[in-house]
């Protein structure tokens, strides 16, 4: 089982939205997915209540010392991917989640204040020595602002942008908000849309980074589930000189 954790001090940067999007993208690739919500705000639990589909199961967790046990239970039950959505700010619970992660994802909007606000989260991740990547979220379709944010994030981490920036960037699109309101993920709400394509691309990037192969699409939990249509997500490359990421043909 792999565990990914969405964390950043800054509220509203897209932790919960990405947790949902990635959960469904991974399920559509054959993963047995659990979501853990450590945020008392309850965004995932509320989303779950609006869903008709019983999957993915959302479990809440309020105590840091229960996390290891919970993950062990999931693993025994055959879960292949756990995604943990944390609250904004720093807490013992978020620290415990980060320490359990195979990959920490830090969603960040392309603004100076948001980039600066990642410092505390980055320090916490470095404190437990876990792999991490930034996800630029709610970006404009294109523009210098994205390139500036990417450069600033690489500076913040003192690493090359290619090592710390997940691709593709997730553009600000209404689909994410509309899907959330209906208890859906973008890959269910608008499977042929650009937002769904970006999230599938992001999941592919994460899978590659984790070094996992998608399980065969045979898991029971997928019975009610329509695999996504025949759309292959584009590959994305970070072009340092360009003001946007470049989708490349397969
Ligand atoms: N790529 C996107 N395009 C459009 N809207 C988005 C996108 N990502 C997130 N949003 C919207 O931004 C708002 C904040 O997102 P979300 O709740 O996922 O952030 P969060 O980091 O979980 O916030 P919190 O710290 O409060 O838990 C929501 O209304 C969500 O629908
Ligand atoms: Mg949230």
TrEMBL record:
Signal peptide: none
Pfam families (alphabetical): VirC1 (PF07015)
CDD domains according to UniProt: ParAB_family
Name of this chain's protein: Chromosome partitioning protein
Organism: Rhodopseudomonas rhenobacensis
